[in-house]
Here is the input.
Amino acid sequence: MNTPVKLVVDCKNTLGECCFLDPRDNALWWTDIDASRIWRLDANLQTRSFVLPGRAGFILPRRKEGFVIGFPDQLCLADGDLTCFTRLHDVEPDLPQTRINDACVDPFGGIVFGTFDETPEMDKRRPVGAVYRLGPDGGLTQLFGDVVITNGLAFSPDGTVMYFADTPVRTIRRFRIGPDFSEFDEIEPLAGSHDAPGMPDGGTVDADGNYWSARVWGGCVVRFSADGTPDTRIDLPTKGPTCVTFGGTDLTELYVTSLRRHHSEQELAAADHAGGLFSVRTDTPGIPQLLCAL
Here is the structure.
């Protein structure tokens, strides 16, 4: 795709992640995990950031005021100003090496999220994490385990397929789901380890059912058609894109967060906008952000 990529906010996030367009205020929200900070970009391109009491792997909107936030080892409800936090569940308290990472509101008003083995030595990270569902009734269930780094969670436009990527495994997996997760069965993967550069990080689905994957360390975003064909590649001025979402008035603007961690001084000097928020115009609109029923 030859459409130019724009630097929207030179926010220099250490680890930008989990971006979404909030239909309640038409603002773009995302988290800088390592900085314990949430960012907001309004429709007038004005930014505001919020300091949190801990690292947030994700932030997602509710049907009511406020948000659900995934801190390293617990789920919380937060008010609209991100000043008041109410604990919902502890998550993997017996695994100090894991933290909550990627998440997505599911088609039934719950939230699917997973964990991340953040052992500092990458070659020592093990599949000790899992993927969970926070139901609209507030109940917490584990969907599956044997996960190193949860990423790429998204749902098909008709709500019958869930996407998931364990980043170091490099495979984008698919699961067939029934109403309110009454059925949950893995089907053939969408893409494997050699289908695109880098590793799959955050992902989203457009209105035509294409899956867009941020390729961390690959310096690009790749679109996969529903049959798994990588048919579009958008190169970015950073090697570390982390998450994608659709925004703009017609949902045809693709926003991409990125990171600055694991860059050398020379790399940061050559790509000073690492950790920024980028956007690019697409030919297919996204799907409106769902709201959590909690």
About this structure: The chain has one helix and 24 strands. The chain has a mean pLDDT of 96.
